[in-house]
């Protein structure tokens, strides 16, 4: 008796397509990681200099006698390496995003391709602006404030380099994400997820939420919380202003020209 059951050709096609997508995803990941590693290897010789530049805001704010210390045996080696890897990732991020773009672009409509490229570019620029804002304004302000607050106590101010790295990474991430708020607002309005009028109505809740977020992710002092909450509110307002010029279109909906048969 022969087996009348046969495998559906559609299932085979879907399986082959899925496997081909996995292979392409692996290739894109390998290329993205390779790009970061190449940049890292190009910078690793200057790792101590990069770390000194990274730690400059704190070192300039330390009072006389204050210094950075190492409490871990391997800290003096691995911390500069981590900082250099962070810098390499930021430099190579356009290449990483390009690999992501090459992977997802074939599945997008033409109008989505036109929208995503400026959004990704603006997101990258805004993230760098957030990191720069934290480095050039927040760090010097907060460190000078803490150093002057610590002076009357008569205690030596010394900071472990690993803890400084953790603090700086958290702060960079917080401000980098904060500066993405205009892009988030525009995307929500552009794809009809939330009406612009609704975003304006929830403005008081956004203000309260901004201070709550600032209290959670920043050091427990009012100054650093204000330095995060105020830009967050200002960027939200900027997003509302820019969203007025955005035409709403449902997510994934093709335009008329894209639905025409070839």
Question: How does this structure look, described?
Answer:
It is a single chain. The chain is flat. Helix content is 73%, strand content 2%. The mean pLDDT is 81. The longest helix has 41 residues, at 110-150. The two termini are 47 Å apart. The chain has nine helices and two strands; from the N terminus they run ααβααβααααα. The relative contact order is 0.10.
Q: Strand portion, in percent?
A: under 5%
The beta-strand count equals 2
Spatial sequence of strands, sheet with the most strands: 1-2
Helical amount: over 70%
Q: Tell me the number of structural domains.
A: 2
How would you characterize the largest beta sheet? 2 strands, parallel
Mean pLDDT: 81
Termini Cα gap: 47 Å
Classification by helices and strands: mainly alpha
In one word, what is the shape?
A: flat
Cα-atom radius of gyration: 24 Å
User: Would you list the SSEs in sequence order as H and E?
Assistant: HHEHHEHHHHH
- Helix count, per DSSP? 9
Uncertain runs: none
Quick description:
With about 260 residues, this protein is mainly alpha-helical.
Task: Give me some keywords for this one.
mainly alpha, 9 helices, 262 residues, 2 domains, 73% helix
Set down the secondary structure blueprint.
Blueprint lengths: L8 H35 L3 H15 L5 E3 L5 H30 L5 H41 L7 E3 H18 L2 H10 L5 H6 L1 H15 L4 H22 L19
Parallel strand pairs: 1-2
């Amino acid at each position: 008796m022969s087996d009348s059951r046969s495998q559906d050709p559609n299932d085979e096609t879907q399986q082959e397509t899925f496997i081909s997508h996995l292979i392409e995803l692996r290739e894109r990941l390998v290329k993205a990681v390779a790009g970061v590693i190449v940049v890292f290897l190009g910078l690793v010789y200057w790792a101590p200099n990069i770390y000194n530049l990274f730690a400059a805001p704190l070192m300039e704010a330390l009072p006389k006698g204050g210094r950075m210390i190492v409490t871990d045996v391997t800290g003096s080696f691995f911390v500069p390496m981590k900082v250099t890897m962070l810098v390499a990732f930021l430099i190579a991020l356009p290449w990483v995003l390009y690999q992501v773009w090459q992977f997802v672009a074939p599945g997008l409509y033409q109008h989505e391709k036109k929208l995503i490229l400026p959004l990704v570019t603006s997101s990258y620029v805004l993230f760098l602006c957030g990191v720069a804002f934290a480095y050039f304004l927040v760090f010097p302000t907060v460190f000078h404030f803490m150093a002057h607050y610590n002076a009357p106590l008569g205690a030596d101010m010394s900071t472990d380099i690993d803890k400084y790295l953790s603090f700086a990474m958290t702060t960079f991430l917080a401000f980098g994400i904060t500066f993405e708020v205009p892009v988030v607002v525009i995307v929500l309005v552009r794809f009809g997820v939330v009406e612009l009028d609704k975003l304006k109505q929830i403005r008081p809740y956004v203000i309260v939420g901004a201070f709550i977020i600032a209290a959670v992710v920043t050091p427990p002092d009012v100054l650093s919380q204000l330095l995060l909450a105020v830009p967050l509110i200002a960027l939200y307002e900027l997003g509302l202003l820019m969203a007025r010029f955005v035409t709403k279109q449902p997510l994934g909906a093709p335009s008329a020209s894209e639905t025409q048969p070839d």
